[in-house]
Amino acid sequence: MNNAEHQQGSSLISKRTMEIVVALLFLGAGAVVISDSLRLGVGWESDGPEPGYFPFYIALAMSAASLINLYRGLRGAGAQIPFVSKSASLKIITVLIPLLLYVAAIGYIGIYAASAIYIALFMWYFGRYAIWKGILAGTTIAVALFFMFERWFLVPLPKGPLEAWLGY
Questions:
Q1: FRET label pair with 83: which of 43, 53, 60, 147, CA 20 to 30 Å apart?
Q2: pLDDT tens digits, residue range 110-138?
Q3: Cβ pair 35, 56 in contact under 8 A
Q4: Contacts of 168 by beta carbon, 8 Å cutoff, 6+ apart
């Protein structure tokens, strides 16, 4: 596959750049976990491992893998390969914005109502389903999630005015 076939429109960012950025982010996350694990203790006590023992070694492995990816990214492989094109980034944004609105709505109307609305609108707009099908699916899924988390697993999730009105 040549570069013209691989690229749909002009590229916003290269694969190489994203590999370097992600490797640095994972290195940063690994450093935070390693630092906190050292604070908690990474040794072995008479009754078993200290609290930081397992996180320390997992973060160490993650950091080592990140260093390898950083080295490969800095070596130059993928410099000409696009990570995402302008046309693809517009599609990503049209999904990302409703997702961000959904997450923001959870704090005001609760996770169940926000989920029902998000699913209904997503099915209607992106799936091209009739709005009543989206409302039916969104409501059914939200009610099923409510019973699953609140009743069966006993895991309280953020609720809003609708749940308060219903007595939850």
A1: 60
A2: 999 999 999 999 999 999 999 999 999 99
A3: no
A4: 150, 159
